[in-house]
Amino acid sequence: MAMQEIEHATPEAPAEQAPVAPRGAPTRGMTTPASACAEAPSLAPVASTLPATADGAPTAQTVTPPAVHSAPETPASQPTEIAISVVIPVYNEAQSVQPLYEALHAELERLGKSYEIIYVDDGSRDGSFEALKALHESDPHVRVVRFRRNFGKTPALVAGFARARGEIVFTMDADLQDDPTEIPQFLAKLDEGYDLVSGWKYPRLDPITKTFPSRIFNGMVSMSTGVKLHDINCGFKAYRHEILDDIKLYGELHRFIPVLAHQRGFRVTEVKVRHHKRKFGKSKFGARRFLRGFLDLMMVVFLMTYLRTPLRLFGTLGILTLIAGFVIDLYVVLDRYLPFGSHTEIHNRPILFVGIILLVFGVSFILTGLQSEMIRHFAYRPEEEYSIKQALD
Ligand code: UDP
Ligand code: MG
């Protein structure tokens, strides 16, 4: 099972301001059949598949591009108005933009559902934004968000998710390594009732320096979280929209979305997808990702287990450490004074200090647990205590 790494890139110098994607704006050229409009996502039955045959997708090119393209931003997620949103983070992928768009556009048109493609330019400095802008001007399905600088893949996905109006939201990498013709496979799995379908790059065409550590990482994740995926970090995924309202993404947690979704009760699965070698540009994630991935894994495991009851973790650790320290020091003292002991002077027993250190650690573990409970108490938000699949009122 599986999963994999990640990494992030360096911030960049701010680029000049540009118009940003609209949000909740009028459905620009988007085929938005009423039938495709979902009701409150949380009420939608899980197996409810995509809004079947949404209106035949409009001939993108024939739709007149809207003159104005901006709308107020709102932090909340968009209501699902269309069938499919594809969110693509782009960081210095200028040469890949056009070929990826052509392949994706062809596939989405073939599906005949309403759709939108949301590109998030994560502070590119290689002309990616200009290429995206040209797409936006020629195709009303294309929306573009441009960051002021490079913030990382997770923030890029978060910005895309916040704007996505699709009942189903896809994510894909911008580097042509993911193949849009796999989209129907993902939809078929969602139709089976799954909420999240993760790609499994098979065979994976990356250098061994990437694939080997990734294997280990995937193994560790599946062992420690119970989410059995072979390629958790694959950028190609499909989500039911309501997942996106239910998880909090920050740092580099995009690697762990399937784990976070699983923890909230969503059904997660994977499909094998064709993987292509990187044609242009280079990978943004280097060797640092492994240590970071490991630390993030520790955090995710904590979030999944003791986040809600931190004293149970720190208190247990603290009590065990206290007991160990106490037993060690008690032994040192008894050994000195009891008639059958060795009568070694206490100050000549280095192990005495081990006992003392354990006692100190024990107390501080317990205090950490109590402090965590305090944070938990004040940060309590009732709606985060559960995840509703359906409500019959
Ligand atoms: N990416 C991004 N911001 C970053 C790093 C990467 O938006 O800071 C995008 C990148 O353009 C690509 C995707 O995230 O579309 C995956 O990156 P990459 O292909 O470099 O990762 P790899 O496939 O090598 O793991
Ligand atoms: Mg890649």
Describe the structure in your own words.
The structure is a single chain. By secondary structure, the protein is of the alpha/beta class. The protein folds into two domains: 80-306, Spore Coat Polysaccharide Biosynthesis Protein SpsA, Chain A (Alpha-Beta Complex); 310-384. It has helices at 94-111, 128-138, 153-163, 183-191, 208-225, 241-246, 257-263, 288-305, 310-337, 351-378; strands at residues 82-90, 115-121, 142-146, 166-171, 196-201, 237-240, 268-273. It has a seven-stranded mixed beta sheet, with helices on both faces. Helix 1 runs parallel beside helix 2 (128-138), helix 5 runs parallel beside helix 8 (288-305) and helix 9 packs antiparallel against helix 10. The longest helix has 28 residues, at 310-337. The radius of gyration is 26 Å and the shape is elongated. Bound molecules: uridine-5'-diphosphate (UDP) and magnesium ion. Uridine-5'-diphosphate is lined by residues 8-9, 89-91, 93, 122, 150, 152-153, 156, 173-175, 177, 235, 283-285.
Percent helix range: 25-40%
Average the pLDDT over all residues and give the rounded result: 84
The total of beta strands comes to 7
Indicate the low-confidence ranges by residue numbers.
1-75
| SSE string, helices as H and strands as E | EHEHEHEHEHEHHEHHH
The total domain count is 2
Known CATH architecture of the largest domain: Alpha-Beta Complex
Bound molecules: uridine-5'-diphosphate, magnesium ion
Shape: elongated
